[in-house]
Amino acid sequence: MDQPRGHVGVPSSxxxxxxxxxxxxxxxxxxxxxxxxxxxVGPLHGxxxxxxxxxxxxxxxxxxxxxxxxxxxxxxxxxxLKILWEAGCVFFVRTTEPQTLMHLETSSNLYGCTVNxxxxxxxxxxxxxxxxxxxxxxxxxxxxxxxIGGSIRSPAAHNEIYGLRPTSHRxxxxxxxxxxxxxxxxxxxxxxxxxxxxxxxxxMKVVLASKPWTIDPSLVPIAWRNDxxxxxxxxxxxxxxxxxxxxxxxxIVTPHPSVRRALEMMVKELKTMQDIExxxxxxYEHKRAWEIIAGLYYVDGGKNTTDLLAATHEPWRPLSEFxxxxxxxxxxxxxxxxxxxxxxxxxxxxxxxxxxxxTAPALAGKAQSQNAVDVILCPATPGPAPWLxxxxxxxxxxxxxxLDYPALVFPVTKFDSVLDQWPGNYKPRNDQDRYNFNLxxxxxxxxxxxxxxxxxxxxxxxxxxxxxxxxxxxxxKKV
Length: 479
What we know:
By secondary structure, the chain is of the alpha/beta class. The longest helix is centred in the C-terminal third of the chain and has 23 residues, at 335-357. It is built from 13 helices and 14 strands. 45% of the residues are buried. The protein has helices spanning 17-37, 79-86, 129-136, 153-158, 197-209, 228-232, 257-270, 286-297, 303-311, 318-323, 335-357, 395-403, 431-441; strands at residues 48-52, 90-95, 107-108, 112-113, 115-116, 119-123, 142-147, 162-165, 189-194, 242-246, 276-280, 375-379, 407-414, 468-474. The strands form 3 sheets. The protein has a 10-stranded mixed sheet with strand order 2-1-7-9-8-13-14-12-10-11, with helices on both faces. Strands 3-4 form a two-stranded antiparallel sheet. A two-stranded antiparallel sheet has the order 5-6. Helices cover 30% and strands 14% of the residues.
């Protein structure tokens, strides 16, 4: 089903007159407050913030990517929106999301495909791809997305912006909507995307300063810690202030040469800095991690999603089929099967924590966790943005959802057709690696034939060339 591909985050049908009128009214109200009181309402006074559409706004449709929910209208604003509103922001637009919310792209039967502003042949990522595209165009400077398998990090990586996937149960999800898939065994989280690191910081600071755990008791009551002094209240710093481990590959899919070069650039810079130690990180059974999380995403075998699509005879989008009907790990599980998978997840988390702790040297009188690795630096995705419907490897993002580690994506460099070449003798290690290799080397095509291009990212397109390479910093403290 070939949908229109001209959208870059905000299809005309989601920019309603009611929304525009509300934004203008809010701006007028804030201007009036400043004139009367000569001070801002709060730290976000007048700041426009874009919002992923499945985060509910009172009186406006909230479809979560389903035609069946096209006329679903929330009775109230999501809690996180109330907090930001009290801080003085202006909500001015809502952004696109894919069918099911479970794509690393943004494609639906409601709005078609949201494309990459730098090259409209390529994806903007997903599922917060509307946010990614709008921020890339500087149509917004700060937006709210959500993430259960990479949905903040993928758009950040493909659009030259920043994105934070916080630990689960840090930011309130009350009032956001998604389909139930038999359980909430992998917790999704809301989080910010921004054109700057400062935007990420102010977002987290403002939301957590409101103490949302007093309203939502499922949240962890920890304030935002964004400097060394605050962090030192929670842990000691010995020998090196920071110990950064570099994961060059997950041993399943080899990152594209541009991603490898970005890691090399970062390592070179880090090694020149005082009080930073750089070590290598050996991935631990990431294939097993995917098998666990892929099974826990849809413990009902995808029945609820299938029923929602069937209710309006809605066609399946290609990446919906990929993650559900074509996924060998998606099964209708018994209670015993679910419990077994949950135990596998908990055991895997314990094993990964043990591996992390073992990066600390044995020091007399010190706990093993001290002097351990602080951050893992690794690829955000296996390569820059692929062709539409090409995002079929989740491992570099879903890994950290399974472990529930916080993850920050940041831009590093741009694709270079001269520097970023595969070794002539490279042989893919498995089918997934071959797929990823072909995306880079054979002009891999979807819906249209690009096979004549020897390097798809060196060719010109309607808006330019694919160019961005991001990395991701993984922690394990609650962020």
